[in-house]
Amino acid sequence: MAEFIIKRVLQALLVLLVMTVLVFFGVNVIGNPVYIFASSECDQACLTKIIADLGLDRPVWEQYLVFLGNLLQGDLGNSFTHGIPALSLIFERLPATLELAFAALVLALVIGLPLGMRAGLKPEAFSSRCIMAFSMIGFSLPVFWIGLIMILVFSVQLGWMPSIGRGDTVEVFGTEFSFLTLNGLHHLAMPAFTLSLIMMAMVIRLTRAGMREVLFADYIKFARANGIRERRILSAHVMKNILIPIVTVLGMEFGGVIAFAVVVESIFSWPGVGKMLIDAIGVLDRPLIVAYLIFVVFMFVILNLLVDILYSILDPRVRLGDSPT
């Protein structure tokens, strides 16, 4: 067990190192931020001073070594535009993104599980066919298009929902939350639903497939033969078995939701890290862009590592073979 965990940790560290190289050098070949910060009247001496102030007068490889040394100390550099540590900006915006991602996850489970169970119990019914068609639409339509259509219909045409912003917030332990106020929930509804559609479609399909497999298992037939009520069978036997793959997939998908909430946050002007990334790209704020990408890579690697370790604890056979992720 210890050997397996050490091996996975070393692999995770190697992935992080490789990704820091790719991210840092990839971002540094895009454009030149100096001309964005310099005014039209800035002469060569002025440009030279800006380059030195931003630390761009060194070779790229030297900039990377400085970045890597600072990274090992938990420092991802200072934002060009804000002049403060990039990591503090990410943590300042992260609660809004986490709130949006958790709301999307809750919606995906609350709506997707019942619909998937319905589709699994009566697969030939018209309602079940409509549910599967809805899941296909959730997978197929681009998120930005869904968001724009929802704004057009529910905000512009009907005037029911606010289209931008986070609404009123309440501070809890120094962190602002919007879901604790009615106005905040009103603002949260559309972006959370838009972000949840892909996860919802996935939950519907996984639940339906699990239902079709478990319902014909011998222990379900035995439970029915013993006169156990159908509701009890579904809640105590079927749900426990179909939730295992669903929770596993959603646990891995949750990192993707946080990482790719950029589109939804941009459409609805949600003040999260995704919106911050778009703003940073607009002004070529390299330290902030690199810090965000490194943070996302770190989050994915840690999630994969935790899932690998959890699987090795639950199923010893995993330690003898390849990682399930």
Task: Reconstruct the topology from this structure.
Elements: H1 2-28, H2 34-37, H3 44-53, H4 60-72, H5 86-121, H6 126-140, H7 143-157, E1 170-172, E2 175-177, H8 182-214, H9 218-225, H10 230-259, H11 262-267, H12 273-282, H13 286-314
Antiparallel strand pairs: 1-2
Helix pairs in contact: 1-13, 5-6, 5-8, 5-10, 5-13, 6-8, 7-8, 8-10, 10-13, 12-13
Overall description:
- The protein contains 13 helices and 2 strands.
- The protein has 325 residues and is mainly alpha-helical.
- It has a domain at 95-271: MetI-like (MetI-like fold), CATH 1.10.3720.10.
- It has a two-stranded antiparallel sheet.
- It starts with a helix and ends in an 11-residue tail after the last helix.
Question: Outline of this structure?
Answer:
The protein is mainly α and 325 residues long.
What is the CATH C-level name of one domain? Mainly Alpha
- Strand arrangement within the widest β-sheet reads 1-2
CATH architecture annotation name of one domain: Orthogonal Bundle
Shape: globular
Throw out a few tags for this protein.
single chain, mainly alpha, MetI-like fold
